[in-house]
Amino acid sequence: xxxxxxxxxxxxxHSKVVIVVxxxxxxxxxxxxxQLASSSSTNQFxxxxxxxxxxxxxxxxxxxxxxxxxxxxxxxxxxxxNVLSRTSLxxxxxxxxxxxxxxxxxxxxxxxNSITGISNxxxxxxxxxxxxxxxxxxxxxxxxxxxxxxxxxxxxxSLARQIATLEDMSPREVxxxxxxxxxxxDGAASSTALQLMPTGFKPSSTPPTAEARSMLIRQDSTTxxxxxxxxxxxxxxxxxxxxVGQQQATDEYITFGQGIVSxxxxxxxxxxxxxxxxxALLFVMVTLAVAYRDLLDILLGFIGIVAVLVWTFGFxxxxxIQFNQIMIAVPVLLIGLSIDYAIHIFMxxxxxxxxxxxxxxKAMGLALGGVGxxxxxxxxxxxxxxxxxxxxxxxxxQDFGVVSAFGIVxxxxxxxxxxxxLKVETDELLEGWGFDRQKRAFGTGGGRLAGFLSLGxxxxxxxxxxxxxVALLLTLTAGAAGSQVSTSFQQEDFLAEDPPGWMKDLPEPxxxxxxxxxxxLDYVNENFRPATSQSQVLIRGDIAxxxxxxxxxxxxxxAVENNVTYVGANGEANVDGPVGTMRAVAAADPNSTFxxxxxxxxxxxxxxxxxxxxxxxxxxxxxxxxxTPNVLYxxxxxxxxxxxxxxxxxxxxxSEVTDQTREIAASSANDxxxxxxxxxxxxxxxxxxADLFDSVIESLVISLVAVFxxxxxxxxxxxxxxxxxxxxxLPVALSVAWILGTMxxxxxxFNVLTGTITSLTIGxxxxxSIHVSxxxxxxxxxxxNVWDAMDTAVTGTGGALxxxxxxxxxxxxxxxxxxxxxxxxxxxxxxxxxxxxFLASVLVLPSLLVLWTRYVGTIDAxxxxxxxxxxxxxxx
Length: 876
What we know:
single chain; Multidrug efflux transporter AcrB transmembrane fold; 3 domains; 8 strands
């Protein structure tokens, strides 16, 4: 008796002790699950890149940046009417009044300038004109009508007064005020108003008309327990705003905010799982029922799966690892491997019990002795493969690798110890009561299923070289296509489209709700500038020099002319930077002290001061205090940084915005002793996308190399053959290429979920290959004939593999009807991955094993041709 068999016999001999110990371990480890936290924020995927550090520097040092304010964009739309009419503007003011009287909303609004819309600006302009006519013009009202959405005077006219003002005006008076507000697009008031209008709006029309306009609602988001997420109060308030908007009778109110986006993503995820979960569970139960044909074995398998998940989630809690989008792949992996482990153990046990003289306890010991080594190899190679994710620059992917590795070890402990021990105890108990516990193994006993499983063996007997060549040609084609798979890391990837009608007809609680964010976002991107759509250039160094200001001016000019920069209805790009802002402040009041100082030090009259730069910047700070800290940073010793804010088109992708912003940052690299870097949320997002792709490639290469080396060494030690490890791994490499080619063919990109597919393919694929190789090796030693050994391997082990594959594919393939797009894509790709891994192991691997057996020197080639080959010495 070898060491492996002795260890397995101890598990079955001391089954009660094994059960008690592992159940106590399950309770202890599982207790950590109560501390498990979750997060849906994409911020946790940030790597410590220069772009991310620059973005953090801006957040920390530029006081105009306020991470604690959330902006809600409300689009007022009426394709058949004019949203600039008196009645439409009045309806918007009453909408604002209703929003303010909603407690859940009102408590989240910022103290000043919480709502800005065309209706407010028209009311402010009208009040200002009334005061001017009365000879008591108020500078406050003028500031309100001409200031930006981020500014507010000390006293803002109440909504009641704004409503009363418009009610007292005739439609013609409102039209005149609207026309004056927009003017010719040159005034500050016009600039503010035009920022709230769609791109195609023509301010010169008389009277101005439009089918859509927007308003901004600003919320205070400081109260949150999750710094990477959105406060529940903010989400609830935005949903209330959306509800109030949906209740408006005439104009359509489209509400768009990050809280609403977050709610839809979370809701689509939960509703997807609620709908798919029962269907997947039903499919798994039916498939296992067909494979097992025994209720007790099905029950034991489910107990094992639950125990594995309890260990894994408990470990995450103890290790303080959050459950995020990428962790959805972990239960898929562990359930798939658990089913695989269970079926192989149960079916091998049944094969051993086919001999009526072998009792269940001894049969389990023999089964574990036969399949145990394969399970250990599967576990070791899968752990190595997933730990390769530690090379990633993204923390969640590193966590994914660690959690997956622990879960796989847990699966070995549960299905290599607890479940066999429970199986022995329950079978003996039932047999003591007179129940027959002998069952036929799935795939054995002849029939069509055995015929299908033997296709690989028959092809290996007749034309193994042809099989291998065809597989390699297919792999080369798929690999070439797979190299072009795109990578995406955008919040938009998680936005669900409105579900089809048949889903909405499902009974509660399966019927999903409505999903409008994607459609609304597309409309906003096409017609407006989304409130958060921008990139930035951070300039660091000694800013108070002529050369530095010249570099900044060049960056601002390049940004204005760039093709991703958003151009408003007035035909202008509202790029914010220190030079442009200084020019605007000086032009607004040419007689001011600042304007005169600015002009006096602009020696060559190019709009950039060449002398006394520090004094000019100081005067700028005194003349425009709200604007200065938004674009300049003084660290106490001097002006240490500046930034240029670039509004970007909503239709521009993160890759395009990043490339163009980097070109802008590189503009006019003169002799100024400053450094410019492209940054902002979209740029950082694109960096994460690149890191995600790098993680996929690095993980794939490291996994294949590490598993390759491990299997070669392991088989050299146990079987005296280096090459058997390489042969075993080759089908896995083939299936990786096949799945990547399929992703390209059906247009599925790498994202936070599908980016794990190479790890899953190796983790699941190597399991299938190892089981076939190990069974073939055992049967070859036992039977001494290549073809008999191969037939037994592909029908015995192949049957278990088919049961495992069918269960996993069916169960998780149901994710194809999920509402959440990445979950749907993940379900399809995972299902195909398992199919490819199964086909490679039962159709291609037999031919590889036959060729290995012939040409590496383990049997006599001539006797092999007669079907009489016996194993000889191993290769060195």
